[in-house]
Known about the structure:
The protein has helices at residues 16-32, 50-60, 77-84, 112-125, 143-159, 181-187, 197-206, 209-218, 231-251, 260-268, 273-283, 293-306, 414-420, 434-444; strands at 4-9, 37-43, 67-71, 92-96, 100-101, 107-108, 130-134, 163-167, 191-195, 224-225, 255-258, 286-287, 311-318, 322-326, 341-345, 353-356, 363-373, 376-387, 406-410, 425-430, 447-448. With 449 residues, it is α/β, with parallel strands linked by helices. The chain has two domains: 4-159, Rossmann fold; 163-448, L-fucose Isomerase, Chain A, domain 3 (Alpha-Beta Barrel). It has a six-stranded antiparallel beta barrel. It has a five-stranded parallel beta sheet with strand order 2-1-3-4-7, sandwiched between helices. Helix 3 links the parallel strand 3 (67-71) and strand 4. Helix 5 (143-159) packs across helix 14 and helix 7 (197-206) packs across helix 9 (231-251). The radius of gyration is 26 Å and the shape is elongated. The model has no long low-confidence stretch (mean pLDDT 95).
Amino acid sequence: MSKVAFVGFGEVNTPIDIIINKCNKAxxxxxxxxxxxxxxxxxxxxxxxxxxxxxxxxxxxxxFDCLIVCIAGWIPTHAVVKITENYRHLPMVLxxxxxxxxxxxxxxxxxxxxxxxxxxxxxYDLNYKFKYIYDIIGKPSGASKVARFAKAAIAVKKLRxxxxxxxxxxxxxxxxxxxxxxxxKRIVGAEIETFEMLDMEQRYQKITSEEKQKVIDExxxxxKFLKQAQKESLEKAAGYYxxxxxxxxxxxxxxxxxxxxxxxxxxxxxxxxxxFMLLADEEGLLTVPENDCLGNVTQIMVKYLTNQPAxxxxxxxxxxxxxxxxxxxxxxxxVVDGEVTxxxxxxxxxxxxxxxxxxxxxxxxxxxxxxxxxxEYYMHLVKGNGKTPKKWxxxxxxxxxxxxxxLEIELDNVSDFADKVxxxxxxxxxxxxxxxxxxxxxxxxxKVI
Length: 449
């Protein structure tokens, strides 16, 4: 588990037990927020700088991804900077605690915000990447905000080594799913590796009937079939899943995309929806079709921040106060309301495949999409409320047409969203995750729109 350093400061003349108690409380709150802390306190400005040297020595032996500078009382700037300068490459939180009101109404303070206000501009002048948070007497502490920033910092570190696998490139010759490799590596850190569909097909040919049947019996059999699928379809789903799984396991991919329309469907005669379902549900992989490179990267970002499956939806209709978003293939079981439900179906001239027709969970959600424009990265980010849509269908499916998985997503301003929309695919997470995504974007230098 990634760790976060906590260093608590207080002036040498402040009663030491007060500083310790305040830091103890702050540490407990952060641990309750899920942070794994490397902690040292109290650090004072003692004349011989014994505390400073102790902190530097202690921290030098630890590994962590973010530094929480907790100001529990007044502290001269130099005492803090002599420690933080060793970690100027890391994201930091400047967190000022607060005093308390006594039963007789007196405010007792250790001048926490004298310390933070002396440090805030200094941190800015030193070009630290930091977040300034201060507590207020009588109000909930800033621990949740501190933890949110720290989790974003941890995600930044993990993104440096994240890998996406893409079978082929630029399905349907789309433009919006392209990416620029060097800038993506420089700004975000994620690496997108392409592999040939031939690699997948050669592995598929070596999958035994017994191996396919095991997947059918142990995984596919859990799905609710509205109509029985052909045995050949089940075997292809199992076999191609195992072939792609081999590639992902060998190369350490956390997200995967397959060339869909011009690849799996056109060349192999098999729509890949059940393959994506198995990869997501059995392996915990993030999946999006059509070689949507930045869609995969957005998924990784959202999963690191929220620990959710970060599934994709695409837009079918805009209404006055909402948008209809759905998928013509699959959703992971983690977002299914009820049973995972599937049926064999064909679209237009494409071969029959196993289509997911599950009902999607409703509720407050966040939609986002990473994009690259004019040499810079942007994150389009909006909060909405997903509700079960009216019965709808996409023209072209065999009749009776399937009820595709989807949501009617209520937005505060559909027109504004439409003016900024960046792609047909957006990544969905449940709850209000706007602020933590903003924290990540701040740390990466990505503009939020």
